[in-house]
């Protein structure tokens, strides 16, 4: 099947920066537009996100009674980039196969500013990075020129690192975790309809959740939480219990006695803690993509994306057991069942705009996007709540069978209250923004 010259519809295939910054840890947007291009097609792209996210920490009282005043956090959002690539082969008139690579979910945060809440030394502050990679294999059946029914398997790898520092994490300050790379398989399926004569396309794609079980190396203050002597559990329990007794009006001597008894009991129960892997489930999602010609050389497009972040949690094995042990202390029952990271709301993202072909070689687009966020308050490792954005894209086609496209998006990030498992209100992040850049090449053969 020979391919026709570039059409107005190809503007959308060239649209970079489809995701880049979204609620929770959503990044790429998981588009399958490359697989829906006619004939044989290849593309590769890269997106870069430069965010400025800062706020002020709340006044915090540490377990030992020290008061840490409210302070500016400085910019905690590290810049990042992520590549993407796709290959689609029209094997026969009715069957196609595709291979898509992207990095769908991720996070990168680093508190560099000296602050008692998140970086007590100015040298070693709270840091976190989560990284995933997807390789999707799709098979499509086209019974006629209008319909495309497709499904496939998704191979996903996930890993992460985290370091907690400062008064915001209470007795858990000094916690480090290295979540080892794990690979699992999920699936996707969808349906697409098109009328090429009017540049009409519609597709609906579902992606399954993927459950990982990661091996995690965990330390608190440089030693494993459950060492042979139980000293780490002893120290954490003592600090928490002492603060609770003082807050209740006990004298220092009474607080020392009570905290010592509680810590000894916790250390004696250290054998009850168990080794185990950490379960992390990346969310299911649905993408709805629509486009239609509205006048000569002009198309309107709309993308609606739903991601099921509700109930998402990262709870490293030993981290969770330490929290459950500390939850037995007076006033600490809320720690039981706590998570390192969690989201409590489904995410909706809507992007719409116009694309126009200016000449045989030049085309462009403009878009507006909105993201609902995934709940507020949110973790200190990603303290924003949704966004609005404005995007511009430009495509140059030196020849009918290939193009080069670039795009930029400016994000107005939503204000958010930040929390940790140890403190329900540790800071407020307001008036933040981000800018994203994208570059993509496409080739038809």
UniProtKB/TrEMBL annotation:
This is Transporter. Keywords: Cell outer membrane, Membrane, Signal, Transmembrane, Transmembrane beta strand. The keyword Plastid does not apply. GO terms for cellular component: cell outer membrane. It is a multi-pass membrane protein. Residues 1-22 form the signal peptide. InterPro entries: OMPP1/FadL/TodX. SUPFAM superfamilies: Porins (SSF56935). The keyword Nucleotide-binding does not apply. Gene3D superfamilies: Outer membrane protein transport protein (OMPP1/FadL/TodX) (2.40.160.60). It holds the Pfam family Toluene_X.
